[in-house]
Amino acid sequence: MSFTPNPVLEFLLTRRSRPAKVLRGPAPDRAELEVLLQAAARVPDHGKLEPWRFIVLQQPAGSRVAAQIMEYAAANGLDGEKPARAFLDSPLCVAVIASPKPSEKIPEIEQTLSAGAVCLALVNAALASGWGASWLSGWPAHDARLMQSILGIAPQEWVAGFVHIGTSDFAPPDRPRPDLAAITEWVSA
User: Fold this and answer.
1) I want to staple 132 with a disulfide (CB 3.0 to 4.6 A). Which of 18, 24, 85, 169 is the partner?
2) Which among 7, 25, 21 has a CA at the least distance from the CA of 89?
3) Cα–Cα distance between 125 and 12 in angstroms, integer?
């Protein structure tokens, strides 16, 4: 079979996230975002467990999250400025919550990988639709106590990523990409 370029592959080969600091309004409305969430939810999900869920943070909820991060950081000797800034800068954030389900057949690592795939699928769906988007985490995402307080997630859940979405005319310069020869091993027998 000969290789035939197509627009989807061209998009994947040239896609670039847009930093949260360059995002502004408007953001997708509810109907537009629901389409992006549908696309994101089409990732591999062995056992059909849906080991993830979404928390949509529209403004002013993003500003409230930023303030809570700053308050928590100050009380715990942490730097809250950078992670809080993303919630202030972007007009919309989708917290992708990893929500592993008990399963004898599907190990938790497969559910974790599915949650990560949701984050990338949501970024790609937003970018392909003409929005700016980026997938961030940072220390707040990994602080269970903070995320339980701010987002109300359950003790067994955690934040797989914060996907910030908005309007952006800024396309960052392409960064160096991996040397495929250095990271690829071909096995034929």
Assistant:
1) 18
2) 21
3) 11
